[in-house]
Amino acid sequence: MAIQLQQEDVKKIFIHLAETFNREKDFLNDLDSKIGDADHGLSMSRGFNAVMKNIEKSPDLTISDMLTTGGMQFNEVTGSTIGILIFSAMRAAGLIVKDKERINLKDLQNMLQASIEAIMKRGKALRGQKTILDSLIPSLEYLKKQDSKKNESLIIKGMIKKAFDGAESTKNLVSQIGRAKWFSDRSVGVMDPGAYTGYLILNTIGEYINKNFQFE
């Protein structure tokens, strides 16, 4: 059975994302306290809770509209740089699946690519500068290399591992973007909270898929 995410699946994924960041909020804040303002976890939690409330308020939203309007709500409640970046990523992903009622693995790859491009354009960042891109880009590169005949569950697991390894790799990097660059002298040895956020997002999506779809 191939991945076919429908509207209800996307709703549930956003619920799980809110739960994930409510749970990981303190850990992300702690990471951010070493190289930033110690509020990254709070921003992510507030943002995805706002997305979830937006869906509850308007249950008939299409997949595309859940992403685009949800991104606006995310940005509105956070009022931070990460809010702008996540909004840009969600809007870009939403446009990729405009008018689609189902999302397959190729769609997910295209959504990830559009999200990365939006983040790079808005944040003026590149891979290797200790940001969310350091977990997202390795996952995209991995997806692009996969054989379409390969078991999709294994592909999803590989994507998650690449995201985690990418987040871990930021411990060896020096912060170069945003306020974190002010703390560049103490950033080595610390995992970037944005990169870990990228991993958490892909892990939450991936776990939902592997728990709710039967693969041959």
Which properties best describe this structure?
69% helix; single chain; mainly alpha; 216 residues
Order of helices and strands: HHHHHHHH
Total beta strands: 0
Strand content: under 5%
Structural class: mainly alpha
Mean pLDDT score, rounded? 92
Q: Summarize the biggest pleated sheet.
A: none
pLDDT < 50 runs, ≥5 residues = none
The number of helical runs is 8
Radius of gyration: 16 Å
Global shape: globular
Amino-to-carboxy terminus distance: 6 Å
Helix coverage percent: 55-70%
Structure overview:
With 216 residues, this protein is mainly alpha-helical. Helix content is 69%, strand content 0%. The longest helix has 29 residues, at 7-35. The mean pLDDT is 92.
